[in-house]
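Repro:
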Amino acid sequence: MSVRVLLRDYPHRSIALVTSTHALIFRHTPSTSDLIANGSLTSISRTSLDGSSVPKCMVEFSNIHDTDLSDYRTLSPLPIHGTLGLITINNDVFLCVVAGATKVAQVRPGETVERILAVEFFCLNSSDYDNTLGDNLDPYSLEAQDNYGYNVNRRDPILEHPCVELQKMLGNGSFYFSTDFDLTNRLQDRPTEASMLDIDSLDESFLWNSYMINPLVKFRQRLVEREREALDHSRILTSAIRGFVLTITIPTSSAPLSSKKTGLPSTLTLISRLSCRRAGTRFNSRGIDDDGNVANFVESETIYWCPTVNGYSQGESVSDKPGGICFSYAQIRGSVPVFWEQAAGLIPGQQKITITRSQEGSQPAFDKHFGELEENYGSVHIVNLLSETKPGEAELTKLYRYGVRHSALNQVEGKNSRDHQLLRETEFDFHAETKGPNGYEAASMIRRLIEHSADGFAYYLSEEVEEIPDDDERPIRRTVPVLEQEGVFRTNCLDCLDRTNLIQTIISQMAIEAFLGHRGERAASDFWMRHSSLWADNGDALSRIYAGTGALKSSFTRHGKMSLAGAIADARKSATRLYINNFADKARQNTIDILLGRLVGQTPVHLFDPISDYVTAELSRRSSEYQSSQIINIYAGTFNLNGRTNGIEEDLSAWLCPEVEASQQQPEIVAVGFQEIVELSPQQIMNSDPTRKQMWEVAVKKTLNRHARAAGSDKYVLLRSGQLVGAALCIFVKRSVLRHIKNVEGNVKKTGMSGMAGNKGAVAIRMEYANTQICIVTAHLAAGFANYEERNRDYATIHHGLRFQHKRGIDDHDTVIWLGDFNYRIGLGSEKVKKLIQMGDLEALYENDQLNLQMVAGLTFPYYSESRITFNPTYKFDLGNDNYDTSDKARIPAWTDRILRKGQNIRQINYNSAPLRFSDHRPVYATFQCTVNIVDEVIREALSRELYERRRMDVGSTTANTGGDDTDDEDLIGYDPVEPGLPPASSDKKKWWLENGKYARSDVQPDQKNAVPNPKRPSNPYTYSDEPDWVTVSRNPARNLSSKSSASPLRQPPSRSNTNGVTRKLPPPYNPAGIAPLNKKLSQASIRSTPPTSTNPILPPPSLTSSNERRLSTSTTSSNSKRPPPPVAKKPVHLSNPNTPALTSSPTLSAISVASTSRAAAPNSPPNKRIPAADHPGFSLPPRRATGTPPVTTRTNVEARKPVATPPPPPQPRRSATAKAGVSANDEGPRPGLPPRPPRNLLDENDGASNGGSWEPLRPT
């Protein structure tokens, strides 16, 4: 699926990766890097461990139909092949995409591998680098990648791109990717049912873009399942390995397996995966680290695929992919796992080896390394090719030998302990062995030294088979694992390049010969020449990565003999290596460290989606709304067949469909385990023919479906089966419950190293039934009456060594059922046991049962439970009757066949044996009730969409694909609370204590009426102050002059006609409702105003005060008004009368009145109580600014302020005696109007500043 790269520059720089169905959009958030750098944001920032800020990017994944891409333009002219991730360099965030690739391999039909030829880095937060990479580099020329800094164009780039070194390394042809399957895991570790690449199962040790892709993987995990599947299907996310991948086609004439009937050629593929755990160049990366990672660790897998006639013989094919047989064999190489270094030098062979840690100090890291290898591959056989004569290599061999001898994997005692040693070593001095006349051909002597382990390790083999279901349904094709590889060869020399590659070629050839030999086939010489050429190319590729040049001795690997031209080529490569290792490797090492995120201070990009992250968290919190529990029934049965096939035609109903309670009949899951399904002869150990298992599968399925039809129940289908030589496990489920089952996996584990020990081991199958993880294991443990300790070791080997995808073990499941022939015996004599059986004293037998005693002692099967045994011992009987062993061996009867369980959600109902007599064992069965969690996907999807829409409304425009200005709120999105239970971070607009971003409102009321907030109190409520919170201010009574105006003059500024000498009208009298003490009418100076249209409440007029000691409040407006009025013009001096009380006239005065200068202003006020001002509910009280000197009188006055310049007093009208005494005189006659005034510009700042004194002019807003 092609991916386009689009760019939007405004209002935010965003880059979109767009497919035909979906878009993945990135938008950098500058508030975490740029704003912190320039000081704009210092309060909140996400930091790394070393204190550096983590760059944040907003990401959004949405359907193409719901995404507006109209503002985007094309950034990359050609479609890309996905993204490798995000990386930060010099505080800039870059998106890396695969710009060029070519197909190099096809492992199986539908599984292709592509080689990366070119990458591009697009900056998310800057456009400076948009056109720099393409100017000085040809992305499709591999030769140009090696010429660092060489400019092929005439014009120089304006700015050097900071990712040019990374671009050269990623495009040098050593990186590979696949969008079809998991390239980081070998074929054996991949699920056979996987239809597409599963990002969750990637092995990070081989994932070279793990550091860059990890933010996107985490973002993917937070998506809901529907969007996660859409993201996987889009193939935007790309996983890259480093090493070598190539497929060569084998023509029909040279194919070792006949495929003439299909007409299709077979293929041979080699995949080498270089580990990134301790990645580096030759002399910069040696030995082991404390985590057990070694330098130049490579897993090489040889895969041979041959088509078969399945799917072509009759009718239409069941799949577009042809069926076939697939062989796989893996081996590993790695540096000597001790702590050592080697300095680069200009003299070949004189680079000194330095041991940096003692033997005892190296052992913990040594054990970690091989413990991980044993967990991943099984038994390990070391092939050490170091020289015994060179002092440095001999010292390394000595330390290696010490580590193997003291390894925990070899601390096994008891009988047959050699078979249980998981670590062996073979020392083969390559140079000494190949000095003779035969030259490198003498290296083939390694065969006889390792052939025993090669037979025991076996190989992986799978075959695609077709199942014909019941009725007339179409055939179903599925991949069946026939054999598993149970061990690995670990080869090393000093560099793990030249000598190692030649020996690994021989080991690969041995494995293919064993595979063909078991099928009675042989390969032609042309096939082996192609095989050798493939391995020679592999050696050259790995050598160029580690040492800088192709591998030495590749001429012999390729042609089977050493020529003069090959010797000259080796000399030239050696000289080139000296130059590169001494002068170029440091820069190469630094580039590798940048790619892997290992530089000090390098921080990964933090991706967040304000919508999807919230939805995922809420779905998890509200899981009870769409989850419910359900009880299902599980049947488990085990049968040691003793290699017999005559029971296939018998009626198995007594075992598979026993007479139990009606609720236990027709269970949802049926697990059937077999042991000794084939005769355990040496010939059968390596030839696990699935035919016998398939015969028993048909017999079991037929019995189950016969009873299902009789009961009117659903039919059973085979979910999955697995086989390890004689052990087999088959899982059947009802067809109706298939929709609840997912992630079905299987694996096997041998319990011995040699070939004969392969007859013991375990087969396990796990599944997820809705949200409950179930694992079922069938095992065949070591035989022998006294070998109970060896059986305990077998259990431990299976328990610790058997792994599924994601390194999931047996214990990592909610429900575990073990069944099989555990071979634990009863510790009594034969006659004593038989006598107790006749007496029916099963309790006495169980008290001496080895498994019971070992479990009680905690030596095996810890935390497992077994129901009470109510049936006789199931081993050993004479064939065809119920008599215990009457042969000369007279084996003691025992309960060898057992079924155990573990889990809080499982309860066992039945436990019994069945009377089938065609084997020397009796089959055993058990029924269980298991509680599973069921998810209602319809309710979950509806809840998901509801949360999504609600969150989109809350977030608004703060997404990766929407515009809008940057806000503080955007910088807080994506930040979790610092601790569980605490609210998320807040900003100026969005606070955790408010709902849906509403503005804050105060419900605080004064403690008494007529009180106002004290303007003298500091604005910070936590600052200590002697000032009270509330004050009361009295208002002097005054006359209320009539006016034609009907609204507050604060709502509209007065018209300019007021300044033309015409007397201005006064506003209507102020009458605040509900305030009884302040119902007295006050008067105001005569002004004229334009009638406003606002319906806001009228502000109270200011109180009377003395003209020479008047205080004016701050000029302000109501919180509801939008345009403040201009200041009122100053009154002429000749109209003022300083001896007459006057009204303070200004439409810009605050609602807080000024105290009177006379004691008569408030004659009824108590002496020690402040007189409150009017508390008007319709507007907020602004702060006051001092403009005059208050008189020092009683406490009824407001506290004194600093004196400032007082403007000239306004003219005073003639008043009566009652007015002078403070009594209102509304009955006075008409007063003379003001004289005409000259026109004045009220907004003239200079005029106001020169003549207005402390009056402050205000402009309308």
